[in-house]
Specification:
WD40 repeat domain-containing protein; 6-blade_b-propeller_TolB-like; five-stranded antiparallel beta sheet; globular; about 425 residues; mainly beta
Length: about 425
């Protein structure tokens, strides 16, 4: 679902919050701003006398106050969420309405793709799990980690400890104490370790990396382990078209790609990870180490020519079979890789790329000499800011929404792609 269909993409610029510094004088202090996806609202945790906390949205405070408030996040559909504590218990507040259920602790707010369902990790009486729209899993666990929430909003999962372990009880650990719980119900299979659970797009199937013994790594899908044994394995990914599962695996001292437990890319890389399919499942890309200290992107097993010390943020386009990624010299001198080519610009910092819906354009926020701006297809917007948030394209891909802070003001700018000329 694209919420951008309902956003205001009238070209032009306006100030959403006129003076955040003036707003701060109305409170004891304000924490960092968070801007809604459509750029219409600016939210900050606000401290009041007492101390007490609330949310200030476009300068106006919520009616409800809390003992503590942290981790404000906007859902994809524009609702404002914040984790809050009152009378020693924690819960989640959504647009100034708190969940009725309270917990010992709450963290890591997550959203369905449509934003209509909200999940969070919880701890209650020393046990851990999920709460979905305020309803906790029926079964909680003494250890739950690496939580994931299906994009469809219909399933949640986490790695869970299903056997208790006494201090220094190495024997029980090596027999297996971990599994994956889906909607609170653990797989029947138990492993020494589990990592990186992931859902398919429909939220009906889940895969995870497993370790059956100290030296036997593999992948399990819905609790059933691949027969293949590998020296190591990284997190799996589902092919969105076929449901096949791909995972980087290590054999004979090198990394390759296994798909449904059969080698699809021969083990010839020094490292291989963060694989991503194109939307139609026809192409598979991954970050690959082709030589020691030289990383790039490999598509269907063939690496791009340009290499860098670090490559991150592999991002497939939502249409077609294009891929982009960020590269850097160990967190300095950032560059953008797109379809095997390197953009001309170099930056002090660069943030996750964003594609237009048709896959024709690529945009991202970048920083140079302490100032930030938005770059589209390698060309910068002519104005710089104190801070830029992730850009967004209009549904037709012809306009770009810029959300930025400058001079204590929050700016909302809608500019045509042709305005990016730098």
């Amino acid at each position: 679902m694209s919420f951008a269909q309902s956003w205001d993409f009238t070209p032009g610029a306006r100030v959403v919050a006129d003076d955040l510094r003036q707003c701060s004088r109305e409170y004891e202090w304000l924490e960092e701003p968070h801007v809604s996806p459509d750029g219409e609202r600016v939210a900050m945790v606000a401290a009041l006398e007492g101390p007490a906390f609330t949310m200030a949205v476009n300068g106006e405070a919520w009616e409800t106050t809390f003992d503590k408030a942290w981790y404000p996040r906007f859902s994809p559909d524009g609702r404002l969420t914040v984790l809050v504590q009152a009378d020693g218990d924690w819960t989640l507040a959504v647009d100034d309405a708190a969940w009725e259920e309270q917990y010992g602790y709450v963290w890591n707010t997550m959203f369905s793709a449509s934003g209509d369902i909200i999940a969070a990790c919880i701890q209650q009486d020393g046990e851990y799990g999920f709460s979905i729209d305020g309803t906790p899993w029926e079964t909680l666990y003494e250890n739950a980690n690496q939580p994931v929430f299906a994009k469809a909003g219909n399933a949640s999962a986490a790695v869970v400890q299903v056997k208790s372990l006494a201090q220094a009880d190495v024997v029980t650990f090596q027999e297996g104490i971990f599994s994956v719980a889906v909607n609170g119900e653990a797989w029947d299979s138990i492993f020494v370790n589990c990592w990186n659970p992931v859902f398919d797009p429909a939220g009906k199937n889940v895969a995870a990396t497993i370790r059956r013994s100290l030296y036997d790594y593999s992948v399990a899908v819905n609790g059933k382990a691949w027969a293949g044994s590998y020296a190591c394995a990284w997190g799996p990914a589902f092919n969105p078209a076929t449901g096949a599962v791909a995972a980087p695996v290590r054999k004979a001292g090198a990394w390759g790609m296994a798909i449904d437990d059969a080698m699809a890319w021969e083990p010839r890389f020094g490292q291989l990870w963060q694989q991503a399919f194109s939307p139609d499942g026809s192409k598979l890309a991954a970050i690959a180490c082709v030589r020691f200290g030289e990383f790039t992107v490999a598509v269907d097993g063939t690496p791009w020519g340009a290499t860098f010390p670090v490559v991150t943020d592999l991002t497939p386009s939502p249409a077609g079979a294009r891929f982009a990624a960020l590269a850097s010299d160990h967190n300095t001198n950032f560059a953008v890789l797109c379809d095997g080519k390197v953009w001309d610009g170099r930056y002090d910092m660069a943030y996750a790329p964003v594609w237009s819906a048709d896959g024709a354009h690529l945009a991202l926020a970048v920083e140079k000499a302490g100032r930030q701006t938005i770059v589209v297809d390698g060309k910068a917007y002519p104005q710089s800011f104190d801070k830029c948030y992730a850009p967004a394209f209009s549904p037709d891909g012809k306009l770009v929404l810029i959300r930025a802070l400058a001079g204590g003001k929050c700016h909302r700018i809608v500019a045509p792609v042709t305005a990016f000329t730098g």
